[in-house]
Amino acid sequence: MKNRKALVVLSGGQDSTTCLFWAIDKFGKENVSAIGFDYGQRHKLELECADKICKKVGIPYEIVPTPIINQL
């Protein structure tokens, strides 16, 4: 599975971080990227943690603003 790519939805919590490291193991670090969603949550600590994790392991991480979710 090293030739395939993975995009991990990373919140910065335990579960999604475990998924990130599983994907790195299965697909190789060079084939893994992560994405997070900023929906206007009060505590942005999770997004900050996700960013730090990705920087530490060398994985691209993008935050997508999704303010519409906060209106639901």
From TrEMBL:
> Which ranges of the sequence are coiled-coil?
none
Q: Name one GO molecular function term.
A: ligase activity
Q: In which pathway does it act?
A: Purine metabolism; 7-cyano-7-deazaguanine biosynthesis
Q: Which UniProt keywords apply?
A: ATP-binding, Ligase, Metal-binding, Nucleotide-binding, Zinc
In this record, what's one Pfam family? QueC
Q: What Enzyme Commission number(s) does the record list for this chain?
A: 6.3.4.20
Q: What class of enzyme is it?
A: ligase
Q: Which reaction does it catalyse?
A: 7-carboxy-7-carbaguanine + NH4(+) + 2 ATP = 7-cyano-7-carbaguanine + 2 AMP + 2 diphosphate + 2 H(+)
- What is the similarity comment for this entry? Belongs to the QueC family.
- Report what the protein is called: 7-cyano-7-deazaguanine synthase
